[in-house]
Design a protein that fits this description.
The chain is mainly α. About 70% of the residues lie in helices and about 5% in strands. It has a two-stranded antiparallel sheet with strand order 1-2. A two-stranded antiparallel ribbon has the order 3-4. The chain is rod-shaped and about 120 Å long. It starts with a helix and ends with a helix.
Length: about 300
């Protein structure tokens, strides 16, 4: 094959452009701090980064879910604690009324206090988190607890559906306690009977019998709080695990994407020296200058 000036010049320009592109690539990497800026730079590493970024985003959503679950559960625990305190206050009134003969006016005073406590419990039962009623099952937009403040009759509405939240791949946890679990029929019937007994004289014995029912209601609330507490502990463990996973994936992605500045700067200087050398060599080996050739 006959090597002409044109062939020599084309080969030289191709090599020179290749050296320039390599130098520009290193310059882009140094300015951005990233090993690639477009898929064609390194398809395998780009694909790896896409997968990692997707996993990190998913974990961040799980983190938000876990935080929401913890807040919901803590709100529930606080409400249950208030219900428990109200039961104890009601028990104190019933105990006082049961252990002495009371006048009509004294009984009416006890009744008024009892109705206020029961009405207050209904308000607690309609507590909400972020606009959602926590004891309403899946019917979170409607208040689940209704109370007749003349008879003390509490009705737990809503439904018994489970509010589940996903905290990791394929792992969901129930975060709600329903109104019927807190205000079960034995408890609501007992409160209504108490108000009835306090409406007239001569029911000290019956009032005394209701103390056991109030104790059962109090123990039920304690058991529900224990269940909620266990789930809060689980959320804290899940939160820690999620944070560690996200940190590890972020570290891997950083290693996959970020450059070693010292190493990359050295590669850039080598490419720059090669490019400068190419220019010098080209000036010597091409007898017709580049300018002459282009003309």
């Amino acid at each position: 094959m006959r090597i002409t000036d044109k062939v020599l010049m084309n080969t030289y320009l191709g090599d020179l452009n290749g050296n320039l592109q390599k130098m520009l690539k290193y310059d882009e990497q140094l300015s951005s701090g990233k090993a690639f800026r477009r898929p064609s730079d390194d398809p395998f590493r780009v694909s790896r980064s896409i997968d990692l970024n997707s996993s990190i985003n998913r974990n961040e959503q799980y983190s938000r879910n876990i935080n929401e679950a913890k807040t919901w559960l803590n709100t529930t625990d606080e409400a249950l604690g208030q219900v428990g305190e109200s039961i104890q206050k009601l028990r104190g009134i019933v105990s006082a009324a049961a252990n002495s003969q009371n006048s009509k006016d004294e009984l009416l005073a006890y009744k008024s206090q009892a109705l206020q406590i029961i009405d207050g419990m209904a308000d607690i039962g309609n507590g909400n988190f972020n606009g959602k009623y926590i004891f309403a099952g899946l019917d979170t937009t409607n208040p689940p607890i209704k109370c007749d403040n003349t008879t003390g009759m509490i009705t737990a509405g809503g439904n018994d559906g489970d509010v589940n939240i996903e905290i990791s791949p394929l792992v969901k946890i129930k975060i709600n306690i329903t109104g019927t679990q807190v205000f079960n029929k034995d408890f609501t019937d007992s409160m209504q009977r108490i108000v009835g007994y306090l409406s007239e004289e001569g029911h000290e014995k019956e009032l005394s019998g209701e103390l056991e029912n109030l104790d059962k209601a109090g123990n039920n609330v304690l058991n529900l709080r224990a269940e909620v507490g266990a789930k809060v502990n689980r959320m804290e463990f899940a939160e820690k695990k999620n944070g560690e996973e996200t940190f590890n994936m972020t570290e891997i992605m950083s290693k996959n994407e970020d450059i070693d500045y010292a190493e990359k700067y050295m590669e850039f200087k080598v490419a720059e020296a090669v490019y400068q050398g190419s220019l010098m060599v080209g000036a010597k080996i091409l007898q017709p200058s580049l300018l002459d050739f282009l003309r």
